[in-house]
Amino acid sequence: SGWEIPNNTSQGSLMVFNAMNPKYGGAVAGDWGPAIRAAITDAGSAIIFVGAGIKTISSADGNGNAFTLPNAYSRLAGSGPGGAQLRIAVAVTWGIELQAAYSGVVDLELDITTGGSATYGVGIDTPASPGSAESCYFERVLVQKILSGTLTNAFAVGPTHTGASNIDIAYTTFNDCRAVAPTNACWLLGNGTGGNILDTHLDMCFAVQGQYGVYADQTAFTSTNGDVYGHTTANFRISNNAGKNCLIQGVESETS
Predict the structure, then answer these.
(1) Is the pTM of this model over 0.90?
(2) Dihedral through CA 142, CA 160, CA 227, CA 82, nearest 10?
(3) Which residues contact 41 (CB under 8 A, 6 or more apart)?
(4) Angle ∠(228,53,138) on CA atoms, nearest 5
(5) pLDDT confidence of residue 256
(6) SS3 (DSSP) at 85
(7) DSSP H/E element including 33
(8) Rg (CA), the chain
(9) pLDDT over threshold 50, residue 1
(10) Phi/psi of residue 152, each to 5°?
(11) How far apart are CA 170 and CA 157, in angstroms?
């Protein structure tokens, strides 16, 4: 079902489940979605490895997403942007949605391509209100629209449950992530209601060719050491920071 990698953390051993394992069925009529989702279910709170190369996703899961990770400590991983490319060719709400604490996405490229659309490319939200999904992380992830696909927001943190102030999504980190050509925001943060969606941190991130680079809606964030430019309305929009401090430092920001 997987292989074990020694891990010296307090959580003991770390399991990796390879979605390319023949037991998960491989591509069905060119669609890798069912195989990867089977590995996610099998893995529980572990790492799901999607391998290298281009993998087309032409079906949605039961949540209307390409992939949903409901378990804490789970991680969807590839071989790096350009090496592991998931191409969404179907209408979904989320490309990849994390729903629980300490989960993550690393070393992946998510492309919304012809025939595909996504309201949110990659990010985190809770399935219900109240809910909690803290300390999630995204590292070396590229989200972009290609060809005639439709991408509304590339990355998102807690964008739903409008009016709910009891959503705990804090300490979310994005490191060396890239967002290209959404119709709205490269990063959409918050749900328009002040509360516990806070302490979102972007470092060495790249946001280009959206309407907004970062759109913070009743929440605060830090953005350091990256590039944010080429947006039609604003590179940064802070729609009320909910009484918290925002920090933008060391960022190359053109046409602000």
Answers:
(1) yes
(2) 0
(3) none
(4) 40
(5) 52
(6) strand
(7) helix 33-43
(8) 17
(9) no
(10) -85, -55
(11) 9
User: Could you give the CA distance from residue 136 to residue 20 in angstroms, rounded to a whole number?
Assistant: 25
Do the Cβ atoms of 160 and 192 come closer than 8 Å? no
Compute the distance between CA of residue 53 and CA of residue 51 in angstroms, rounded to an integer: 7
Structure tokens at 12: 């003991």
**Pair 142, 173: CB distance under 8 Å:** no
Each residue's pLDDT tens digit, 242-255: 778 899 999 998 76
Is residue 2 predicted with pLDDT exceeding 70?
Answer: no
126-178 tens-digit pLDDT: 999 999 999 999 999 999 999 999 999 999 999 998 888 899 999 999 999 99
Task: Write out the two tokens for 111.
Answer: 């492309």
3-state secondary structure of 8: coil
DSSP code, position 34 = H
